[in-house]
# Entry
Amino acid sequence: MALTFIERIIVNHSKHEVVKPDDIVDIEIDARAARDFGGPNVVKSIEELGLPIHDVSKTFFTFDTNPTGSDQKYAVNQHVVRTFARKHGIKVYDINMGIGTHIMMSEGLAYPGSTGVTTDSHANILGAIGAFGQGMGDIDIAAAFAKGKVWFKVPESVKITLTGKRPENITAKDITLNLLSVFGANKLLGYSVEIYGEEVDKLTLDERITIASMATEMGAIILLFTPSQEVMDYCEKATGRKLEKISADADAVYAHEFTLDLSTFTRKVSMPGAPHDTSDIDAQKKTKIDSAFIGSCTNGRIEDLREAAKILKGKTVAPGVVLKIVPSTDAIWNQAYDEGLIKIFKDSGAMVSNAGCAGCAAGQVGQNGPGEITISTGNRNFPGKQGKGAVYLSSPSAVAASSLAGYITTPDDIPSEPALFHTSETKTNGSLSKENNAIIDKPTIVEGRVWYIKEDNIDTDMIFHNRYLAITDMSEMGQYIFDNLKGYEKFAKQCQKGDIVLVQKNFGSGSSRQQAVDGFLALGISVIIAESFGAIYERNAINAAMPIMTYKTLEGLNLSDGDILKVNFETGLVENKTKGTSLTINPFSEVALEIYKTGGLF
# Structure
């Protein structure tokens, strides 16, 4: 039987000779890692449950979300992890090293055909080198540390072929944003995506990383590239050994196949609030900016920095505009220094930080304030993700050009005199009250009042904002649920134990944070029902015994916000007690029901 790329990797890491979509199999994991915000919860699970470490040579910690050590809670968590790592002989890639997923590639922990998991929701960036990478929650990572393997549902595969010649001014980031404009946030939801084409074969490793890093924003499990010779050479140097090139079988069968003309792709930006809400950059020119950011796991590579330096050399950032530049790894930082790029950045007036996640994490440079307008090379601009202001996403060249102009523009349209403006300061107050401890029950039939939230793509920053990521005590989590979802900021105070949350497509997209699940447990929410869930969120909920269910339609239920519903987890029967209607949705799977009844994965 012919196998797709993801199926080939799974077969090579399981006891099965053939797998097919929806099979649930145990996969051996070559590299198991946890970061500085997920790491403490992994340590907590292992220590409280008395779990072993399966193989310390394949187990790692990466500190990338707060490499400056500027936050007290992060500092405490990092010390907890360091202490645990010393005790067990686990290697820590500390705050001086950079982004963990990039370290996994540069240090040879991940390589073509390998498997790697971490608490980073962008672990699927490993698809750039033809490896299986998955962001997972704290419970999954603890299981990987202890068992060396995790369960995984084989996804369906999609094949995308890019035809035509790539326009000279189209960057890898533009390719990504064009793909987002076509597929949105959920058309590829739950799929493993393979990308092919003559121009695709020419993509450099750095360009492949840029495209693969935004699989999460497309809802995909992973975007996989067949390794080029450049990629093979890079990985063989990193691992110090000869590697076997891996690919899908020529006659593999795909759920969907798409052909797109690369020659029609245009330079784009993502509009504030949603990466998939794209616009041609020409339509947004002259939009005044307060700040600019170059970095993140998407665009912090040496090619990105070279492109920015080429534009910034001999010029000065517009008055009142702050340009922040953060290389993805320390090795890239040093390379940029050796090539004279850091001097160019500093001479232009940019602020250069040590390597790390930067704008995507609240602990490093890249955040903006209320009312601030930023153009960024990051992969996410969800409300509140990179700060309280508005964030446009674009390529390093466009960001560098815009920082010189003082407004959004392109490298070929930089004015001789920058736009000027007067700035003002704002302050925020983040004090919040405490809430009740979680009360968790294990019935298979529940009844409660429904919160009917008619929105797609409710991401984890809307559910549980990243400014609360240092919280590890579940009893403290519930009070912050939905406080970043417009219209539902008072949800935690108004909900009652036993309430039901019913939403639409792609609920829980975005980050791998476990708190976005545990907060509902803390509030006593009896079940979350959605048309579909983000892949990582679905795993986190099942593993934590948080009841979740999916539906294909609500037709006939005559549902209104506040109705009383009775839900049967085993049969899928949903009864609207208020209206006297009913329908059947997808019941719990056998695996989910078993984990639920035992109170969680462990």
About this structure: The two ends are 35 Å apart (CA to CA). The CA atoms of residues 570 and 593 lie 8 Å apart.
